[in-house]
Design a protein that fits this description.
β4 (about 155-160), α5 and β5 (about 185-195) form a beta-alpha-beta unit. About 30% of the residues lie in helices and about 20% in strands. The protein contains eight helices and seven strands; from the N terminus they run αβαβααββαβαααββ. A seven-stranded mixed sheet has the order 3-2-1-4-5-7-6, sandwiched between helices. It is an alpha/beta fold. The longest helix is centred in the C-terminal third of the chain and has 23 residues, at about 165-185. The N and C termini lie far apart (about 40 Å). It has helices at about 30-40, 55-65, 80-95, 110-120, 165-185, 200-205, 215-220, 230-235; strands at about 45-50, 70-75, 140, 155-160, 185-195, 240-245, 250-255. The radius of gyration is 18 Å and the shape is globular.
Length: about 260
Amino acid sequence: MASCGGYQGYQGSALRHQGLSPAGAHVLDPRLALVDRLLPRLFRGARALDVGCNAGAVAVQLASSLGAASVTGADVDAALIARAEGHLSFGASRTRPAAVGRAPSARDYFPVSSVLDHGHRRPPPEQAAAEPAFPRNVRFVCEDWVATPAAPRAYTLVLALSVVKWIHLAHLDAGLRRFFRKCAASLGPGGHLVLEVQPWASYEKAVAPKKAPHLAGNLARLQIRPDAFTGMLSGEGFAHVAESEELPRKICVYRKL
């Protein structure tokens, strides 16, 4: 049973890499690959926030494979944050560190078998640099992001993948509005919000007996439907710049004006 949607396997392909030794962790999350095709270089150099980061696959890939300058992953579930830390440690253990007189750090340099045989490698001390390199540019925090104060313009990119439904169910319509308002406050002009839209039918499935039946009462109180999200975000100062229905759930990208 899930309290806020963070049960094991919930995000499907995005969680295929759970645990301390993720299998196939080199396979890019299809949602990230899609957004990278829609808006090339959106991720490069970004100060990114992954709301509802779950087991950390998206956050780690943003920093290690897509060139984000820094990534913060936030989730309400402490057990999932522990998994995310393990995922980061596993990715770091496969990365050859940069060194003077040698090429930059190389992702997936050490084979999976090396990590399985010898354990996770502790990264060397930080070298002087303008920006921290992977894995030091990734951090995970256990918090209900909707309920914490906003840090104005702290990020250039916010991702909300497979999470808005759970925010809506847990915090009701008022909480959804607060979430969109906080996304707007956290981004400066030109910043982007990437939203995976979960259809209303998935809300109804979410409160099934083996998932989150304790949220069934909240479901009955909701008036806002997913097709209203774009209008709500427009009211918070976002422009709808891209979308795709190529994957099972629609992906929408908004730019802060």
